[in-house]
Design goal:
There is one protein chain. The chain is α/β, with parallel strands linked by helices. The chain has one domain: TIM Barrel, CATH 3.20.20. The chain is built from 12 helices and 12 strands. An 8-stranded parallel beta barrel has the order 3-4-5-6-7-10-11-12, surrounded by 4 helices. A two-stranded antiparallel ribbon has the order 1-2. A two-stranded antiparallel ribbon has the order 8-9. The longest helix has 21 residues. The chain starts with a helix and ends with a helix. GO terms for molecular function: isomerase activity. Keywords: Isomerase, Signal.
Amino acid sequence: MKLLKLMTFAIMVCISCMSCTSQVHKDNSTQQYKNKPIPKISVQLWSVKEELKKDFKGTLTQLADMGFDGVEFAGDFGPYKDDAKGLKGFLDGLGLQVSSAHVTFAAFDAEHFEQSVAFYKALKTDTLIIPWDDRAWDSSKVDSVIADLNRLFTKLNAEGFYFGYHNHEQEFDAYNGATFWDHIAKSTPKDFVLQLDVGWITFAEKNPVEYINRYPGRTLTTHIKAKLPKAVAAKIATNGKRPIIGDDVTDWSAVLKADITVGGTKWLVIEQEEYPNGLTPLQAVELSKKGLNKIITTM
């Protein structure tokens, strides 16, 4: 009888531990590193863009069930494209915040500025990011995009928003003795957000921690994406490594520590653009979320 009780207790402990590992509780504010809160975890909805088209509400419900604190929009608002308050109510019901949104310059031109500002204010998000502009790695056009970024920064800052830019690999090409990313950083205000995509900077064979430390307080949100460096990704055999957080080559603990102590990071935004081993996008996102949870629990 005693043996049976001990076995039952052991099983219950094991199940409890598995649950803790698979889903870090939604409010990470109680977890700290060096007396600073560990940022909340969001997901960039581009990761599941096809799923959103098929079942917007069902997909968001599944993401909420994975334990995400928030979502980062990328232009798809499903049935709520003209109903920000309705979308906010739906997200509230799932326990999801809007960590941030990827936006276009066109959405904030003179004709659409007030409407777009009202929409994102209704969603209660305070961070808007330009995700891509091919002028950013063109030596003859980079100053043009910087001028546009600075102009929109001033307007959105006056409305209470944080505003910034998101990198891909090309921003880390050499330019003026540094990189295009450095040029953008040095040519924008110190509270202009540099949303570092760890996957793309890793693919570009640069050190993400170095860039977080180089621009203190400017990594307000970080894209937590697993990508293999070019040299590794080009090889057929990758020694079991794959683009899933925790199964890749990035020192995520070092990235998170830099985010927390130097970057001023409020949100860790998981983005999944590769789905290895036949995984569906939702399956890959869930595995990366579990991988990130595990890393956080060891800090």
